[in-house]
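Lab notebook, page 48
Experiment: co-folding of the full assembly
Goal: obtain a model of how the components sit together before planning crosslinking
Operator: M.T.
Materials (sequences as entered):
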Amino acid sequence: MLNYTIRRLLSVIPVMLVVSVIVFMIVHLTPGNPAFLILGEDSSPEAIADLERELGLDQALYVQFFNWFSQVITGDLGTSVYSSQSVTSLIAENFGPTFSLMALSTVILLAIAIPVAILIVALRKTVLDPIFTSVSLFGVSVPEFWLATLLVLGFGVALPIFPVAGYVPFAEGADAWLHHILLPSFVLAIVEVGIIARMLRDSMLDSVNQDYIKTARAKGVKEREVLMRHVFVNALIPTTTVLGATVAGLLGGTVIIETLFTIPGIGQLLVDSIHRRDYPVVQGIVLFIAGIYVFVNLLVDLLYTFLDPRIRYD
Amino acid sequence: MFTKKTNLLALAMLLIVALAAITASSWLPFSPAAISPEQRLTGPSAAHWFGTDDFGRDIFSRTIVAARVSLSVGVIVAVLSTVIGTVIGLISGYFRKVDFVLMRIIDGFLAFPALILALALVAALGGSITNIIIALTLAFFPVMARVVRSATLQVKNQSYIEAAQTTGSSHAVIIAKYVLPNILSPVIVQSTFIFAKAILAEAALSFLGVGVNPSTPTWGNMLQEAQIYVTIAPWYSIFPGLAIVITVLALNLLGDGLRDSFNPHQAKRKRKTKLA
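Observation: model returned without errors.
Model output:
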């Protein structure tokens, strides 16, 4: 297992290297001169030349990559063209709301998906199962920004229970924080609920007929206990792997949800920076998000071997 | 394959949407671009089934016409991702020497949530339809490459491949004649899902204001424009959204149904366990 852990840790290096190349290339895909695009049409040739030098755009591509990459390694993601603030500090400032949103969404996601999956498996012989399958398919077919719009209409306008926009940090009162972030977190979670619940259901149904479950039943263990203690616990293992992919879905979703509810997180910062053509910030955030995703998947993989020691990766 | 009821239903739904979009100009009650200021933001009525927008344009006509761009982007992205992903997946699964390098590159692409990668690429390339297709293809082909690679690895160990190798067939012939036909079912299923995801992603990009030029009606653009009027003209948001849901749902249904049809054993086993 130690061997696997070390190899899994090392596998992050090539992935992050490729990620860095992709992120670096994003700016260089821009048709035309990035300095000209940032400064706008009225800029003087001298100003463009200055910015080019500042951004290192006058050097060969591989030199630029090497310079950029050696900075990134030390945690220096560059400076915002728009606010002259360091990208790292911008991300740090805006990460609180995004983290709140993701953490609460994950809680809501699991709090809905787990009971639903158990209920479906317990009542698998009834009409509930095909209904659930259709509903979960519906869930992955709804654009989240549209669902958010409908929920805002329902719970922000028709029944004004929740504010339709804005964010209050946790430090300024847990009540106000929760009040502002509950609806956005719910929207973010609900789109992924179907995927997780269905994965849980499928793996629980797979184990319902396994020998150890039959043994438990034969021993006279109550059906309820069979489900909770044997079927459910074993279904958690394959589900942890999907949770990794779900984090990616949530990270993508925060961009939309933050824009829609005007929550000042890194998703909104990303969209704003795109409109401002603030490429260093765009690069920094995209790299940061990919980094989180790679890190979460690493954790999930390591957790997986820990939860199920039978798994050996040779 | 198309005998299953859900497959047929899904296919019928898609055909209706596609046909409506293609033939639109011959039967639509209003021109999608016709402005009538006195009809601004009126609710659904006998004349305007889905109501009118902020320029008094007919939302029904615009929703139907918007299907053209949304569906075209979806189809093209699905086809391009499938072709690129299949070629890379086949090479990676068949020639083990390049597998390691190719898969590390694919891993790198997969490290980005698809929407974030597409967003960053469109930001760099600019928001034309071509660039959105490029960005979405780059966001979705890695999944296809992974699927094709693992299918190829399974097929490669079959004895008929070994037999073909011993008779001296070239690699290209083996791949084209023996590997490719045997991995088509996961490819078709996956391309259906990519089609669905591409429609959702295109709408999301337009909604974030980095998508197709706002003057072109697409479902995402309509929803973006509708956003400011959501409290006074909810129908403006509801109908284009429903169009997305129906189309994407049909595609997901089709993908699910095809997967079951291609894997009759697995589907049967699922039904059995359900009844246990």
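Interpretation: Chain A has a mean pLDDT of 84.
Next step: discuss with group before ordering constructs.
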